[in-house]
UniProtKB/TrEMBL annotation:
GO terms for molecular function: sigma factor antagonist activity. It comes from the Bacteria. Coiled coil: none annotated. This is Anti-sigma K factor RskA C-terminal domain-containing protein. Residues 97-222 form the Anti-sigma K factor RskA C-terminal domain. It comes from Methylibium petroleiphilum (strain ATCC BAA-1232 / LMG 22953 / PM1). InterPro entries: Anti-sigma-K/W_factor, RskA_C. Transmembrane segments: none annotated. GO terms for cellular component: plasma membrane. GO terms for biological process: regulation of translation.
Amino acid sequence: MDYSRPLLADRLAAEYVLGTLRGPARRRFEALLPAHPALAAAVAGWQARLLPLSAAVTPVPPSPGVWSRLERRLFAGVGAAVPVRWWQRLGLWQGVSAFATVAALALGLVLSRPQPVQPPIIVVIAPNPEAAGVLQAGFAAGLTRDGRALVLQPIHPVAPGSGRAFELWAVPPQGAPRSLGLVSGEQATTVRRGLLLRDTAAFAVSLEPSGGSPTGAPTGPILSVGKLQI
């Protein structure tokens, strides 16, 4: 099949981004993306056209029972006497429903780039509703299963502002977040660290001074948070 044909590439890319391309056909398409620039370009074009629609989706509050089960699953073992950390607050997760579409689009963003040998783990680091008045910054991250490399791609290009920078954090189930360094809000950033997955429950991006946090912990607003699913 000639995937360089514009009409064919556009039709397959549209079905892929919309989520109607499923099963073996979807997996075959994902495997073809790195080797076919025409397919990758078509996917990027459909993402650019459809992604703004996800921002208009009104979040639907889940029932209290759903949140109770999520809290038990995500934060099991955290005692009631332990102070609630910023990444565990309910408000950080209430905007996730609006980013269900973004998760599918993020897969294309990462897979359109050359891939490591190990298959990637896809993490959507979604904008924090509590920081909506500061900046809207969302990211898609592709993390290799060996935990050694992470490619962070902004969903919408966004600049941190004069004298400011975005800093990426690995968030453990308990204890303080650890910095993974400064990242770009306008282009992909590759982060290479040993054992990125060890003791990591989520990733977060904060707004910091241009040189990064001066304290070793987030000092500015937490702009986006993404729960790690393995």
